[in-house]
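The data are quoted verbatim for completeness:
=====
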Amino acid sequence: MADLTGKKTLSLQTNRGVEQDELKVPLEQLREAGATVTVASQENGEIQSLVGDWDLGETFPVDQKISDVNESEYDLLLLPGGTLNADTLRLDEDAQKIAKAFASSGRPIASICHGPWLLVQTGLVDGKTLTSYESIKVDVVNAGGTWWMSP
């Protein structure tokens, strides 16, 4: 991975339902590469992750509420998946504003598995090529995006 020293990443997820490894692994790798990562959620406290959208996983501390985020301070937006997480997050008006601000400024958005639901909801996939969990392929295509899966 590239050296990300001095780069700031914002990770958005709800307090319950994010897929454990879709949050844990990117956080670890980003931090190992030198990035500062802020974990933002709808409420302060902890995030209860899930494994396979069902079993309880690890908990992660919340650094900041989504409603208090100043998105202009960040270089990268991370949207982990998890069906429950992504379905709830896509309806969060503050998360929608943040995603739109990142897209309009050209800053990168890393979206995992069901994470693209927020991008679909906000109209940000039109004309874009992206991948996701296969069950939201139709959502991506219907929103004007091109769905791609690695061979």
User: Anything to note?
Assistant: The longest helix spans residues 20-32. The CA atoms of residues 104 and 124 lie 9 Å apart. The chain has a mean pLDDT of 97. The longest strand covers residues 55-61.
